[in-house]
Amino acid sequence: MIVRTQRCRTFGSEVKIADERPGEIGMDGVAVCICTYRRPAQLSRLLASLARMACPPSTAFVVVDNDGADPAVRDEVVKFREMSAARVEYVVEPEPGISAARNAALAKARWLGAGAVAMLDDDEWASPGWLTSLMQTRDATGAGVVGGPVRPVFPASRQALRRYERLWTIRQGSLDGRLYVSCTCNCLVDLSAVAFLGDRPFPMEFGLTGGEDAVFFRRLHRAGVPMAWSEEALLFEEISDERASLSWMRRRWYRQGNVGVRCERAAPHGLSPLLKTLLLCARLPPYPLFNRRAFSAPVLWLLESDRVRGRIASHLGLVFKEYGRPVSDRQSAPEAENWR
Questions:
Q1: pLDDT band at 16 (very low <50, low <70, confident <90, very high)
Q2: CA nearest 208: which of 64, 334, 101?
Q3: Which element (helix H / strand E) includes 153?
C-alpha cells in the first residue's frame, strides 16, 4: 500500500494516510454517515461542524440524499468535499423512506472497507471532539455500539421550553439492567457486530413510519452485542419553531406509541405488545405515582396518554407514517447516483 503525507484540514496536523483506492480506507477506518432529505441549510451547518471536527486519518464521510431533486443538497456536499481532506461519498437513494437511506449508507461504508460507521442526523451538528470521543470509548470498552448525548437548541422565542428540555434530549438508557443505545441520531457501530442482520439491517417496512433504528438496536441488544456510552461525544439538535410546541410533542409521543407496538412485534422482548398496552392503560390513571415528575410537570401525564392512544391505534391497524410523502414525489424519484 502506498503511504503519503497530507495535511488533514479536519484534523489540523500532518498525518499519514493510505493512498485512496476504490473501496479501501482500512478496517480500522470509520465512515461518518448522514442521511438527508430536502434540508440543504441544515446539512450545510452540519457539514461545517464536521469540517472543524477532529478526525483520525482513516475517516470517510457518506452523505445519502433520499431525494436527489434539490441540487442545493449536492452543492453542499461538493463544498464540503473541497474543504475536507477526507474522502467524501455522495449517494442518491431513490427509494423513499429512512430505512432505504440508512441501508444505503451502510452499504457504501462496507464498499469503502470501513470497520465502523458513526451516524448522526442532518438537523444536528457536532462538537469538536464528537467522533474521537466515540472511538476512544469503543477502544476502551470493546463495545460493538457506542452512543452519545444529543442536546436540544431552542429558538430565541421558545426559551421557556427549556423547563422541559429533557423531552427533547437524548440520554443514556438501559434495558434489562444493561446499558442500551436506542437510536441512530448519535452512535458508533462496529459493522462486524451487525453482519448477522444481513444487507438490509434496517427493516424496510419501517421506512415511512420510523422505528427502524429501534428494531435495529433491539435486535443487537437481544443478540448480546455490548453497548457503551460516551457523555463527551456531544451533538446538538436544532428545535425548529414547529417542533418547539406541545402539539408537536404530543404527535411525537403518539407516533412513538404507534410504532412501538410494531417494533415490539418485529423484535420481541419481554411482555407481548398487547399485554404491555393493557398494563399501560391500567397504569395511566395513577401515572404520577409511577413517574413523580408528573406532579411538577403535568404535561407528562398528557403525553403518556398520547403514547397509550398511539399503541391502541396500532393494535387496531392504524399506522402513523412519520415520513410519508406525496405520491408525486415517489413517482418522480431520480435514478440512483454515486460519485466520488
A1: very low
A2: 101
A3: strand 150-153
pLDDT in tens, 261-314: 999 999 998 899 999 999 999 999 998 888 877 656 788 899 999 999 999 999
CA dist 257 and 91 (Å) reads: 32
For residues 336 and 130, the model is more confident at 130
Amino acid at 329: D
**Residue 213, Cα to own-chain centre: how many angstroms?**
7
Q: Of 216, 244, 272, which marks where a domain is finished?
A: 244
Structural domain harbouring 299: 245-326
Contact assessment for residue 190 and residue 181, using Cβ atoms and an 8 Å cutoff? no
Give the span between the Cα atoms of 52 and 71, in whole angstroms: 24
Contact of 207 with 323, CB cutoff 8 Å: yes
- Cα distance between residue 302 and residue 304, in whole Å: 5
What residue spans of 176-245 are helical by DSSP H? 212-222
Give yes or no: residues 107 and 139 share one domain.
yes
pLDDT tens per residue, range 312-340:
999 999 999 988 776 555 444 454 455 44
